Amino acid sequence: MTDAIPQKSFASRDQQVTTVGLGGEGILRTTGRAPHARRVIQEALSQGITYFDSAPAYQDSELYLGSIWKENPAARQKVFQASKTGKRDKKGALSDLEKSLQRLHTDYLDLWQIHDIRSKRDFDVLSGAKGALEAFVEAKKAGKVRNIGVTGHHDPYILAKAVAEWPVDSVMLPVNPVEELLGGFLTSTLTEARHKNIAVIGMKMLGASHYILPKFNISADLLIRYGLSNEITVGIVGCASPDEVQTLAGAASSNKAISSAEKKRIIQIFKPYSRKLAFYRGVI
Question: Is 269 within a domain?
Answer without folding.
Answer: yes
